[in-house]
Specification:
With 699 residues, this protein is of the alpha+beta class. The protein has 29 helices and 18 strands. The two termini are 50 Å apart. InterPro entries: DNA_primase_core_N_sf (IPR037068), DNA_primase_DnaB-bd (IPR019475), DNA_primase_DnaG (IPR006295), DNA_primase_Znf_CHC2 (IPR036977), DnaG_bac (IPR030846), DNAG_N (IPR013264), DnaG_primase (IPR050219), TOPRIM_DnaG_bac (IPR034151).
Amino acid sequence: MSLPPGFLDELRSRVSLSDVVGRKVMWDQRKSQPGKGDYWAPCPFHHEKTASFHVEDKKGFYYCFGCQAKGDALKFVQETENVGFMEAVEILAGEAGMEMPKRDPKAAEKQDRRTQLIEVMELAVKYFRLQLRTGAAADARNYLARRGLSQDALDRWEIGFAPDGWQNLWDALKGKDVADELILAAGLGKPSTKGKKPYDTFRNRIMFPIRDARGRAIAFGGRAMDPNDNAKYLNSPETELFDKGRSLYNHGPARAASGRGAPLIVAEGYMDVIALSEAGFPSTVAPLGTAVTENQLQMLWRIGDEPIIALDGDKAGIRAAMRLVDLALPNLEAGKSLRFAIMPDGKDPDDLVRSQGPEAVQTVLDQAMPMVKLLWQRETEGKVFDSPERKAGLDKALREQIKKIRDPSIRGHYAQDIKEMRNVLFGRTGGDSGDGFSGGYNDGGYNGGGYSGGGHNDRGGRGQGGSGYQPRGGSYQPGSRKSGGFRDGGRRKWQGAPVEPVASTRASLVAGADEASITRVREAVILASCVATPRVVVEYEQNLERLACVDPDHGPLRDLILRYGVDAPDRLRDEIDYALGPHALENLFSLRHVAISPCLRRAGDLEIASQLLAEEFAKLEASRGADAEQQEAVEDIQHTEDEALTWRLREAAEARNKAQRSENEDKATYDVGDNGARLNREERDAFGALLARIGFPNK
């Protein structure tokens, strides 16, 4: 939804920042001067005793001298309530008595429809809650009591009961003049295949309302009271309100609690979430299916940087954890990961809370293991590695897993941790480099192809060869495979934020920008083209799904394009503005290399958009392929020289030269500032010598 000019300025003028902040802090009366609009308090964003959090009411800004948090009223609401930009606008607009601007007619029509369906869902919530108090629900009440739920807890979670029978809810809603079509569209009823009246979706079940992040009822989960029922738990079908793979149970309360510092916990089911929340772990959610989806994983990371996955201590729980590891590996980002808290064997979080109390749960959570250890456990637990072949099999399996990680820095750290665990498994000390890797893991694969002077020698001892692992991004050391990262061996001195390049600093993509910058440019053009011509998304849906999104701002935009570009292209821009704020597209379209793109100059032209995307995706794939092949060839040449390897390096170098020529052709289209990283002299000379060694010119 686009906000009209001046709306935010009017909102900020009506809202007092001290009033907004004052709901979350206690002002320091000695330092604050209300008459001057000058307020001080302990910071709400980090634990402290001194009043270092400063609010200047007249300027409308806050700043913490301890943690450097800063912003205006909108930013404060976003941070403390853990909500998005538009949600923060709606919250403050409601407090200021300002009406939110209306959407275009189509969007307004859709919103009216959703409002009607939500009203029907709320009627169902009330109906089920009333039914829980009837005689027919005696067994359900007894079951809930055995699970330790008090009446207050039942009220807080709005738990209800769907009585047995085919049309109980249907008749109740019809008695309130709800249209048949709305009952069916809300997923509360199903049409009969025998020409009879539609029947209730939920029958003889304990009912758990499912609400979205804004607290609106969108679906139900029902637990069967009949032990012979085919489905112990049943969720509402997919509807206009409910997308199972994009929803979390207890999303809104957990998000708010996480914003106040509570750790985010992911449990398996409704009762686990309720039990943990009631026991003092309010930031607990559950997926609404058999496994966490990629969309749900991204939702979790928007709530908390390192969710704790609290799984049952049985085989099914472990299998679920392993599936989640496979899902998360390609999506890892710096600071975004998962930890796994495995419950005692045979228990789930609800069992542990009721039998041993919250302290026992906290102990398990404190022992949550990082994902790399769970990955190692999967590949090694219950296996014997008493032969070179078995050890090589382990190396191959781990190498394949590490290759899934897109981020090179995270890949390097995973490699280092696994190398250390491997040394422990095979009885090597940390200083022993005879691990058979001769340089260790690097960039998605460790070269465990032979022992090259390391490993066990024929006399049973350990060889002294091997150079040890040097992760990418570390300092250059003699004897390591390559230099990387900071070339002076330490951290660079901070030189301030980079300024935007001026016209005089135009540079080609090859000479003036690193590969990440080039990729960001292409990503921006691709996403902007999809927004300008949404009908093209259908053709390139699979390419967009594989788009890595080097720029973290591009990921949420890509997800929205995939979600609405195929099914609802006409409202794509409205949905992006609503989810990310109007600044998202403004910032994207204002980028120079985007603004001059033909897709923006001729927005809506499907043919041009299709041609441009085909070219951009092809260049991205070519660049990634050339990087991977050349990297593997350069690593392998450390140990062997044969015709196959020589051919690989020649092909990789030729592919790189082709990519460079293609980039030069793009010079008139893209303009990237000369702030990228170049090879230093030592690196350039080494690579040039390597090319000359196999008889290939270094162009």
